[in-house]
Amino acid sequence: MHMNQIVRWWVAGLVTVVAFAAPTWICATLALPAVIKDPGIRWGIAGALGVAVAALAALWGHSFATSDADRDSTPTSTGANSSDTLNQISGGIQHGPIIQGRDFSEPILPKTAPPHLDAREQD
Questions:
Q1: Which burial class, exposed, middle or buried, applies to 28 when counting CB atoms under 10 A from its CB (0-12, 13-18, 19+)?
Q2: How far apart are CA 45 and CA 48, in angstroms?
Q3: Higher pLDDT, 97 or 57
Q4: Residues 8/65, Cβ–Cβ less than 8 Å
Q5: What is the pLDDT of residues 61-101, one digit of tens each?
Q6: For the chain, is the Cβ count within 10 Å smaller at the N or the C terminus?
């Protein structure tokens, strides 16, 4: 573990703690006292909001701490034609291999038509 990565984890942890403490304190002491008089309920609601914000900050912090700028800046080549490959598929989760139209040099047609698509009528 490099020093840079240790610093990133410390920053991620500090941001998560602040993301919990700040909204919790602001809600419990400034925003909610005019609406909710009972301190137990007020701190409970403020704590729930703080936990929700801290969870989002923890998700960010994990990706921040585990990202490696050196790895992102150096392209990796896995095959002979990897520089020619461009796959842009959107619109959902794809199960199985993806074949795009530009992957073929000529149309691919079945050798014979399926029986239900045959043009001849059978009596």
A1: buried
A2: 5
A3: 57
A4: yes
A5: 999 998 875 554 555 555 444 555 555 566 666 666 666 66
A6: C
8 Å CB contact between 11 and 57: no
Q: Which domain holds residue 63?
A: 9-69
Number of domains in the chain: 1
Which pair of structure tokens corresponds to residue 107?
A: 């149309």
What is the DSSP-derived secondary structure letter of residue 116?
A: G
18 found inside a domain: yes
Report yes or no on 92 lying in a domain.
Answer: no
Token pair of 38, please?
């009972």
Query: Is 25 contained in some domain?
Result: yes
In the structure, how many helices (H) and strands (E) does the chain have?
3, 0
Residue 54 near residue 19, CB atoms below 8 Å:
yes
**Half-sphere exposure (Cβ direction) of 38: Cα atoms closer than 13 Å:** 4
pTM of the model: 0.55
Spatial contact of 23 and 1, defined as CB atoms under 8 Å apart: no
Pair 24, 47: CB distance under 8 Å: yes
**Helix H or strand E segment including 48:** helix 39-66
